[in-house]
Amino acid sequence: MTASIPQRYATHPEQIPGMTTAELRDRFLIDDVFVAGEVRLTYTHHDRIVLGGAVPAATELALTGYPEIRSEYFLEHREVGIVNVGAAGTVTADGEVFELVTGACLYLGRGVRDVVFADADATTGEGARFYLFSAPAHTTYPSALVSPGEGTVRELGDQVTSNRRTLNQYIHENGVKSCQIVMGVTQLHPGSMWNTMPAHTHDRRTECYLYFDLPDDARVVHLMGERDETRHLIVADQQAVISPSWSLHSGVGTAAYSFVWAMAGENQAFDDMDAAPITDLR
Q: Which residues take part in binding Zn(2+) (predicted)?
């Protein structure tokens, strides 16, 4: 059993106005998602989500149990969605090997005991980077792999408003079944910068974003907070943001990018959101 998972405790919206930039980043930004040769996870008490990354780096990495979740093995009482944002890799789940190309999504349900991550080709120098999003599960659904473009694809936004984007829904109520995880990948079209506008909340679910495919010299300005008390985080490539259910979320980049969005909470209705028009924000 691995030593521990760093924890982020739940916050009340009234705490936000008094926080410094450093405090906001400590609470809501995960800047070390991917570390070569490690499974690196963070536990947030917002809906008891665990998120993080696995970077095999020419080795094999096992997903083990942790004291914080009081389980013999990681998925004893949990489910997990996995998206590969690196080169091709494999995930072996109780002996079954799943091959994940870049952008593929794998769902593993409660009860899968042995999970091992590896690169598809350890000789290329371009390794897999598996992003993990896990939530408690009350029952078992079968493992399922979805390749890029095989999920529900939605074309959203407009180039005129700089938010033309392709949204791939993978784990959702009309796709891969889960207890509570909803997960997918959105790719912005060239020349588009906003990942969603207007911003929105869904007080019934916590959502986490992993930004990727962002140039090294570019950043995303991620909006958060309440409508009349907004704050922001400056986010680099392959960093993740925890967005509590009470917080609005939207972001604009200095270049086009992609992001993994994942939610867990009261329901799985993707469109159950409350818009926060820009004219209402302060």
A: 200, 202, 207, 249
Helix (H) / strand (E) element for 20: namely none
For residue 118, give the nearest of 39, 55, 74 by alpha carbon. Answer: 55
The runs of H, that is alpha helices, within the chain are: 21-28
46 is in an annotated binding site: no
Assess contact for 1 and 76: CB atoms under 8 A: no
**Was 126 annotated as part of a binding site?**
no
CA 272 to chain CA mean position, Å: 18
Q: Is 222 annotated as a binding residue?
A: no
Q: How far apart are the first and last CA of the chain?
A: 46
Which tokens go with 132?
């993990």
- 23 labelled ligand-binding: no
For residues 120 and 89, give the distance between their C-alpha atoms in angstroms, rounded to a whole number.
4
Does domain 18-144+151-280 correspond to CATH entry 3.40.5.10? no
Tokens 């290329």 -> residue? 124
Mean pLDDT, the chain cut into blocks of 10 residues (282 residues total): 81 94 97 96 96 95 93 96 97 97 97 96 82 97 94 84 88 94 94 86 91 96 94 97 94 94 84 84 90
Integer Cα distance of 152 and 170 in angstroms: 7
